[in-house]
Amino acid sequence: MLAHLTSAVVLLGATLAATTAATVEPLSFAISATSQNVQFAAPPDANNATQIIAFLHAASTTGVAVNGTRQVSGTFAVTGSYCKPTTARVRGILQVLVHGATYDKTLWSGLGQGARYDYRGYANAAGYHTLALDRLGHGSSPQHPDPVAVNQAQLQLEILHRVLAAVRSNRSNRSNALGRSFAKIVYVGHSLGSFLGAAIARTYPADADALVLTGYSTAFTTAAIAAQTYAPGALFSPSRFGSALPLGYVVTAVEAERSRNGGAFYGGAFDTDVARADFARQDTAGAGEFASLPGLLLGGAGGGTAADAYAGAVFVATGQLDAAFCVPTAGRTCADILQATGESFPRARAYKYYAPADTGHVLSLHYSAPATFRAVHEFLDGVL
Ligand SMILES: *[C@@H]1O[C@H](CO)[C@@H](O)[C@H](O)[C@H]1NC(C)=O
Ligand SMILES: *[C@@H]1O[C@H](CO)[C@@H](O)[C@H](O)[C@H]1NC(C)=O
Ligand SMILES: *[C@@H]1O[C@H](CO)[C@@H](O)[C@H](O)[C@H]1NC(C)=O
Ligand SMILES: *[C@@H]1O[C@H](CO)[C@@H](O)[C@H](O)[C@H]1NC(C)=O
């Protein structure tokens, strides 16, 4: 009994010590949005896992046929964590953090794997406010709309646009869950979150004063993603995801594939315990948010149209061993790929890239993470 009590006190002490660093305010935005989604020509049967996995595989290899568009509207609850700067040198700038596929907002605090991987903590210590969001259908997001027809990349783009407008507008706006407004906003994405950031620069160029796109380039290759084995979260881990989660929300199903050196997520120098925790703590990916990327966000072959009207600053950080975004081809290095990515932001007032060595796709969970965090903030401090 006494032993239990003592360990409870120790645990409480540890929790307090961890939270004095940054106060995490959970919040939820109520966002009304309308999107022109794509209509897939041959969508999978929502109750047939075999068809859903085949659809996802087709999306990451041959692509899936689209037959027109379909308008989707609704009010969506967007959950997030707001943290204030933890230093006296406060900057009135908000970083909005948007995770990639099979992650949620906890990616930005390193999935709880230690300060080395804590991007949010680094940003707060550098004087920035942060708002880490769960994309629709992920993390603590209460809604899990149809993962094929409704929860598509274009809808997520429209929702993010509305969140950015809400946090820019004054506190009397009921949509602004922050209760304060920011005149300067940095959009920070990872992977699918970076695709969405680049699309925001093309579609709503006034939304972000700076873009930080991590795990990203305009030379996206899908072989490493297609090589993963996927399974519906509801069948793979009903205790975590609930057996009622629509089958189109999938997880990577084989730990050795996900945490492998040279696979879609990891490469070079990283802690295998972190890669294992990443597998255990992964969130889902929606079949439709992935399958809808080519038509609506990439604007066709070759990585998409340019953000011609975007005048903010852009920083791209992508690992040299990123198996999806920095695969060298004959005569074209990772540095060449990231240099060329800058061409899709022709009017950006600054463009810079950073390519950490010995680092794979989920760069914030590699040993080089602190150097990446430093490079991002040196850039932001210089341009904002
Ligand atoms: C596309 O949609 C139209 C209208 O709903 C339908 O008539 C046509 O058969 C569809 N084509 C394909 C290839 O699915
Ligand atoms: C699921 O789809 C597959 C492939 O189309 C089909 O062979 C199978 O019979 C379907 N299963 C059920 C239960 O409908
Ligand atoms: C209030 O926030 C909503 C949601 O983003 C936005 O669409 C709207 O423009 C904002 N209103 C004002 C007056 O800024
Ligand atoms: C907040 O924004 C609304 C809509 O733009 C405006 O009518 C109102 O005066 C603003 N309130 C303050 C305190 O600035």
Automatic annotation (TrEMBL):
Keywords: Signal
One Pfam family from the record: Abhydrolase_6
Annotated ranges, domain AB hydrolase-1: 96-374
Signal sequence, start to end: 1-21
Protein name per its UniProtKB record: AB hydrolase-1 domain-containing protein
